[in-house]
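Researcher: Please translate sequence to C-alpha cells.
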Amino acid sequence: MAKNYLTKERYEELKKELDELRLGGRQSVGERLRHAKELGDLSENAEYQAVREEQGLLEKRIADLEDLLENSSLIDKAGGGETVKVGSNVDLKKNGTETVSYTLVGSNEADPTKGLISNASPLGKALLGKRVGDLVAISAPKGEMKYTILKIK
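Model: Translation complete:
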C-alpha cells in the first residue's frame, strides 16, 4: 500500500470532518431512522431504505477517513535540502524554455492547477531524490518532457 502524505493543514481539515461526521452526521441519521421506523412496515418504507443507504455511505466515509488519518505521515515543510522530497518546492526549467514551480504533496492534496503535484505522479516520482542541476525526463501524452531542477526550496 502506498504511503499517504498530508500537510498539517489538510490533516486538521480531515480530522475536523471526521469529528463532525461521527457526532453530527451519525446523530442526524439516527434521528431520521427513528422517524422512518415510526412510519410503519420497513420492507415497503422507501424513506427508511433511503436513510439506511445514507447511513452506509456515512459509515464508509468515516472508515475511509479513519484509515487515511491513521496511515498518513505529515509532510515536513522545513524546505531546502539537497534532494527533492515530499514537501519540497521545486523550480524547474521545462523543455529548456519555460520555468515552472511545483510543490510535491501526497496524492490526497494534489492540485496541479495550484502547483501541487503528487509524489505518485510520473513527474513527482521522477523528481524524488534528485538534486539541483539534475535532468529529469518523463513520458507524457504529448511526448517526452524534460525538466532541469533549478532550485529546491
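Researcher: Any highlights?
Model: The longest strand covers residues 143-152.
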